[in-house]
Every structure is written in structure tokens, then in C-alpha cells.
Design goal:
mainly beta, seven-stranded mixed beta sheet, single chain, four-stranded antiparallel beta sheet
Length: 123
């Protein structure tokens, strides 16, 4: 079992930046693909960014390409999401996820989920 806890969310003005962190416990994430998803109330949980277990491959949703960056530090059992040039449409609850696929870009490929952290971007 992997327990995931997100942090770093908050309120930021459009154009600003935030760095989300996700710390795992229960087991090492070194063999886990890690991903970030986001969800707006009343809508589906959407893929944002993913990194393969090796760290060699990343994948981003078109809406965040060039603005967001996913990274991981296996020694700290953590994964991060650096978010720049934030827009009001980035407002959502952001979830960290882990899975045993080589890279996890869909909800079905993720076995473990955090509780989420709220990101609000004001105009």
C-alpha cells in the first residue's frame, strides 16, 4: 500500500506560480509511475502530468504544456508539480496518483490516490 499526501495548494493571482508536493509513505515509489490529475466540482478528474517510474519519460496534458513541470525525488519518496503562468482555468483540486504502469496517464492506470489539494487562481 502507498499513502499519498499532497501539499502546496493555495490562492494565487493569474500569472503566478505554485509548487505542489506529494509525499508517499508505506512503501517506496521508486518503482511507481507518478502522476497528477485535477478535478473541478461536477466534472471528471482530468489528467495533468505524468512521469515514468524511471523518471525518463514525462507526459503532459495539452492545456498545461510549457507551463507545468513534473519531477520526482525518490530519495525523499516525493513527486512535485511546478506550475507557472497560472490561469483561472487551472483552478481545481489537484490529486497525486501512483501506479505500476510504465507511465500512468489515465485514472485506470493509477492504483493509489491522495486526498487532493485545492488550487485557486484569481483573475
Amino acid at each position: 500500500q502507498v499513502q499519498l499526501v499532497e501539499s502546496g495548494g493555495g490562492l494565487v493571482q493569474a500569472g503566478g506560480s505554485l509548487r505542489l508536493s506529494c509525499t508517499a509513505s508505506g512503501r517506496s515509489i521508486k518503482d511507481q509511475a507518478m502522476a497528477w490529475f485535477r478535478q473541478v466540482p461536477g466534472k471528471e478528474r482530468d489528467f495533468v502530468a505524468a512521469m515514468s517510474w524511471s523518471g525518463g519519460t514525462t507526459h503532459y496534458a495539452d492545456s498545461v504544456k510549457g507551463r507545468f513541470a513534473i519531477s520526482r525525488d525518490n530519495a525523499k519518496n516525493s513527486v512535485y508539480l511546478e506550475m507557472n503562468s497560472l490561469k483561472p482555468e487551472d483552478t481545481a483540486i489537484y490529486y497525486c496518483a501512483a501506479g505500476t504502469a510504465i507511465i500512468a496517464t489515465t485514472r485506470g492506470e493509477c492504483d493509489y490516490w491522495g486526498q487532493g489539494t485545492q488550487v485557486t487562481v484569481s483573475p
